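Researcher: For the record, we're logging two predictions in this thread. I'll number them. Prediction 1 follows.
Model: Prediction 1, sequence and structure:
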Amino acid sequence: MHVTDELLKKIASELELGLRVFVHRETFEVIAVPTEEDLELGDPELWETDLDRIGAVPGAFVLFEPMDSSEAFSVMEAYAGTVADPGFSTQLKAALLQPKPFARFYEVINRAGAYRERWFAFKQEAVNQWLRQKWARLFE
């Protein structure tokens, strides 16, 4: 099945919240649940029904997890390379070279007005492309 934009958006938004996303191989039903660590911190009984459904038939659901940190870092680097303003581009690149590059990048981008909005659009498109590639490997 070719993934729809609506389904991609749903998966991406759940991943953005830090949830694990399971997609049924045949029905494409989406179930989002907290990570194992987050389940231990909260009340796992709240998620029991969903977890039981996911585990009922081994292999029926495919797991989608957020980008790993190296992939997310690459997206930030790519965005910094697209910024037309050389001074701002340099600020973003410098932030990525410092300790805690994610926090530093967001410190710079959050003060950047229009560039901040462009960053979120760029990031969303990068996540969508990444999810499409993963979808193709798993479902097509």
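Researcher: Logged. Prediction 2.
Model: Prediction 2, sequence and structure:
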Amino acid sequence: MAEQINFQIKAIETLELSINQFDGEIPEEMQVGYNYELQHNINVEHQVTAVVCTLKISDQKSKKTFGRLKVACIYHIVDIEKYLSEDKKTVLFPEGFNITLNSITLSTVRGIAYARFQGTYLQNAILPIIDPKSFVLGDPQ
């Protein structure tokens, strides 16, 4: 049985939002691409982990960027110091925990993007559902 980690969302911050000018709506035949990047930043002293998601929406053919959104989901992790490696340089969370954080963060970003893009030509660019496991390197699950 996996170890339970006590955590909660402490804050959600929109760090960047840009929508590039585009005349009209995105044509249906245009292949819209969604490029996600996740970065985990851990602060043991404050017992927090920030998962920063950068989303870029672009035309896959021309590579023209339509919009960009960067959001930080900040999580309070109870007793985070107990997950420190022996050399105190790495935090080693139990199996699957990073996937949980990624999943919550990606869902949050999807909702923020939907709300922020309403009334713009990106309002129908609803982000696809993706496997949060695909973002975790070295997490054995």
